[in-house]
Design a protein that fits this description.
The chain contains 1 helix and 15 strands. It is mainly β and 200 residues long. Strand 11 and strand 12 form a beta hairpin. The chain has a single domain, classed as Porin (Beta Barrel).
Length: 200
């Protein structure tokens, strides 16, 4: 009787730990909707000889991923425009908006639990626009660079998951003020995202 009870307890625990299955099979699509906190690194280079600082921004983020192989997906990241204030030498002198579309190849580790980690690498193209400055006409070049990410999905249904992920972007942009080169902004931000992801 004791052995049967122990076996039943163990099997019940295993079923509880297994949680909903979220097969990531070739041909599957996932769509994610969430919010992202974009934080540039602390040292953003020098512009016009002064230390530059680009502040953080929080905006809605969206992902779509297609699985070209089991557990291997191609993902597109999109977002509503992030807005940043720019300071030189501690004084706020400009603002700019940007969009960071990113294409990544992700590998999702198969597990026997509700927790599904993944890693990815890709290419980011950051578009800067609507730059405004109290010092004159400000131009910030668009940027192309690599992007790296790691994430963790927690399954809440057979087809849905809550996702936490962290991305790093290589973003370096030449900056002009009134037509004159004043340096390179070295932004290299981290994006911390929380999303709901659904499989179709």
């Amino acid at each position: 009787m004791t052995k049967k009870l122990a076996a039943l307890t163990l099997s019940t625990a295993l079923v509880a730990l297994a949680a909903p299955a979220f097969a990531q099979s070739q041909g599957d699509w996932t769509v994610g909707v969430g919010v992202g906190y974009l934080k540039p690194k602390s040292d953003n280079g020098k512009l016009a000889g002064l230390d530059a600082d680009v502040d953080a921004s929080t905006r809605p983020i969206f992902t779509a991923e297609y699985f070209v192989r089991d557990n291997l997906g191609i993902e597109l990241l999109a977002a509503t425009p992030f807005g940043h204030n720019i300071s030189l030498g501690g004084n706020e002198i400009a603002s700019v908006r940007q969009l960071p579309p990113t294409l990544s190849l992700n590998y999702h580790f198969p597990t026997n639990s509700a927790w599904l980690p993944y890693v990815g690498a890709g290419v980011n193209y950051t578009v800067f626009y609507d730059a405004k400055s109290t010092l004159g006409k400000l131009d910030i070049d668009n940027s192309v660079g690599i992007s790296l990410q790691a994430g963790l999905d927690y399954m809440v249904t057979d087809a849905g998951a809550v996702r936490l992920n962290v991305r790093w972007f290589d973003i370096d942009s030449d900056v002009k003020l009134n037509g004159n080169d004043i340096g390179k902004a070295k932004i290299d931000p981290w994006l911390i995202g929380v999303s709901y992801v659904h499989r179709f």
